[in-house]
From TrEMBL:
<keyword id="KW-0812">Transmembrane</keyword>
<keyword id="KW-1133">Transmembrane helix</keyword>
<feature type="transmembrane region" description="Helical">
    <location>
        <begin position="297"/>
        <end position="316"/>
    </location>
</feature>
<feature type="transmembrane region" description="Helical">
    <location>
        <begin position="221"/>
        <end position="240"/>
    </location>
</feature>
<feature type="transmembrane region" description="Helical">
    <location>
        <begin position="398"/>
        <end position="415"/>
    </location>
</feature>
<feature type="transmembrane region" description="Helical">
    <location>
        <begin position="104"/>
        <end position="125"/>
    </location>
</feature>
<dbReference type="InterPro" id="IPR020846">
    <property type="entry name" value="MFS_dom"/>
</dbReference>
<feature type="domain" description="Major facilitator superfamily (MFS) profile">
    <location>
        <begin position="9"/>
        <end position="459"/>
    </location>
</feature>
<feature type="transmembrane region" description="Helical">
    <location>
        <begin position="261"/>
        <end position="285"/>
    </location>
</feature>
<keyword id="KW-0813">Transport</keyword>
<keyword id="KW-0472">Membrane</keyword>
<feature type="transmembrane region" description="Helical">
    <location>
        <begin position="435"/>
        <end position="455"/>
    </location>
</feature>
<feature type="transmembrane region" description="Helical">
    <location>
        <begin position="74"/>
        <end position="92"/>
    </location>
</feature>
<dbReference type="Pfam" id="PF07690">
    <property type="entry name" value="MFS_1"/>
</dbReference>
<feature type="transmembrane region" description="Helical">
    <location>
        <begin position="355"/>
        <end position="377"/>
    </location>
</feature>
<feature type="transmembrane region" description="Helical">
    <location>
        <begin position="40"/>
        <end position="62"/>
    </location>
</feature>
<dbReference type="InterPro" id="IPR036259">
    <property type="entry name" value="MFS_trans_sf"/>
</dbReference>
Amino acid sequence: MAISARWTALGVLATGSLMTVLDGSIVTVAMPAIATDLGFAPPALSWVVNAYLIAFGSLLLLAGRLGDLLGRTWMFLAGTAVFTAASLLAGAATTPAMLIAARFLQGAGSAMAVAVSLGILVTLFTRPAERATAIAVFSFTGAAGAAVGQVLGGVLTDALNWHWIFLINLPIGLATVLLGRRTLPADRGLGLRSGADVAGALLVTAGLVVAIYAVASSGGVARMLGLLAVAAALLAGFAVRQATARTPLVPPRVLRAPGVAVANLVQILTLAACFAFQVLVTLYLQNVLGYDALHTGLAMLPAAVAIGAVSLGLAARLNARFGERRMLLVGLVLLFGTLALLVRLPVHANYVVDVLPVMLLASGFGLVLPALATLAMSGARPDDAGLVSGVFNTTQQIGMALGVAVLSTLAAARTDGLLAAGRPAADALTGGYRLAFAVGAGLVAVAFVVALTLLRPSAPRTTTALRTDPNDLEQPIALRTV
């Protein structure tokens, strides 16, 4: 494939990813308008977010494997088409049930498209420098897209109405499908007979649905723990199935590949802290400092700009020169500093002095995510690339869901305790957020220790050579050291 065609294909993949990431955050600032217009009962309103999260997070692994079997390009285009059609349904929703159903379909389409995106990317870009740049561009859409979504959601809701936060996906989605048909590589899947582990798929999908439902819905600690126990039993059954099945959904070799398991563990810990950082800082700006939705999005924008500047402008060159492991460690140090600064947030904060430095330090995420993506995909065989991509995206969703659930619960419990002790509401809220940020800093510290001790140093770029035998499926996609 010509160089220009490959970079156009990267643009298609990044645009598809950006749509799904934006849709996960763009809806949050429009929630009050949606509730008023459609008459949502307060307990049901959270399902505008939860329906998307449950479908997206639980179907990623299955979609990744089906992409390997049916064709990754086909899966990406089909997922984008489903997402686009569901966006039209969401934009036209006139009842709560219609919107929730549309959001579930959006999540399913997102899972189909996102699960295979990295798998397509690593087959398009095989040279180390090009792959590093491509992964940096792709990672930027995930790292900064959520913050951009908050700004865009506020603008569209204020200037037009909440329907347009979904309808804006229609031209983008159609253009992505049409351009993708022309530029993405035509790949043939292995066929369903090569690995359609139906029982394993049902077990892991059910386990992830129950786990994400447990942490995404409200119903008390006891109920959440009970659901998590059910999820653990289902996932344990899945693990047993993978060890005994003739064609397992996740072959054990996938997790034994160099760096895959460790990179995904580091990602869970990091995303748990960083996504909760985004959510809780947003709540702090609104509930303590009194910002409205639009000004909150604008206040978060410097973080998106900083992350974008690092991931697009520096990450690829730094990874090429110093190796992904070193840059991952540097990024984790910056993120630890971000959360450590948040621990001292005052009740009456000055944005420039107290908040802006935090947003700029968040640029460390622009180093962390490209490095993790490269490390997680580096040991994947060509026929497993879609599955490894699905695993990587699944652990992203697990980390984000667990982080928000656990840290928000800790913050709420601390706030309730301070209120019971007679502290003013603003003081109590700030105290709760500070505790959550401290725990988040601890999670990042653990991620740093895991990466430092378990990840092997990256091989120098000058000592690698391209795979010469395209039929050698035992050789990983990443370049071998000579």
